[in-house]
Automatic annotation (TrEMBL):
Residues 3-119 form the Response regulatory domain. The keyword Phosphoprotein applies. The lineage of its organism: Bacteria, Pseudomonadati, Pseudomonadota, Gammaproteobacteria, Lysobacterales. It comes from Luteimonas salinisoli. SMART domains: REC. InterPro entries: Bact_response_regulator, CheY-like_superfamily, Sig_transdc_resp-reg_receiver. It holds the Pfam family Response_reg. Keywords: Phosphoprotein. The modification 4-aspartylphosphate is found at D52. This is Response regulator. One of its GO terms (biological process) is phosphorelay signal transduction system. The keyword Phosphoprotein applies.
């Protein structure tokens, strides 16, 4: 079971994503804006962050950049989950340190696939660095 931080200023989006995360058997954590997301990432050290972009205080691009450049949180993969669907937004998000990009609206299976892909990649990387025994 992974701990997944959901950062979104929309209560309905937060509830919908939380429902999917719980259905997958993961523990959801939440923050209501980018600044709170950065603080929660430092405090909770989740396994994955699902980050909205358009939010008050600190937008998702700024929060992703802060998380990906902080030595204490840079290992945490961030997936931007946003209505911003232009290719330039996607490229900019990846340049800020995002590991994935999902545009709203999305289906339960699309979000499930992204979560599985990112968490699976993290597990594969961790396993490849574990020395073989035997």
């Amino acid at each position: 079971m992974a701990r997944i931080l959901i950062v979104d200023d929309s209560p309905s989006q937060l509830a919908g994503i939380r429902r999917i995360v719980e259905k997958l058997g993961h523990e959801p954590l939440s923050a209501e804006d980018g600044q709170a997301g950065v603080e929660a990432a430092k405090r909770e050290l989740p396994d994955l962050i699902l980050m909205d972009v358009v939010m008050p205080n600190l937008n998702g691009f700024q929060a992703t950049r802060a998380i990906s450049r902080d030595p204490g949180t840079r290992h945490i993969p961030v997936v931007l989950v946003t209505t911003k669907d232009q290719e330039t937004d996607r490229i900019w998000g990846m340049r800020q340190g995002a590991r994935g990009y999902l545009t709203k609206p999305f289906s339960d299976s699309e979000l499930s696939d992204v979560i599985a892909s990112i968490l699976g990649a993290g597990n594969a990387a961790a396993e490849s660095q574990t020395p073989a025994t035997g």
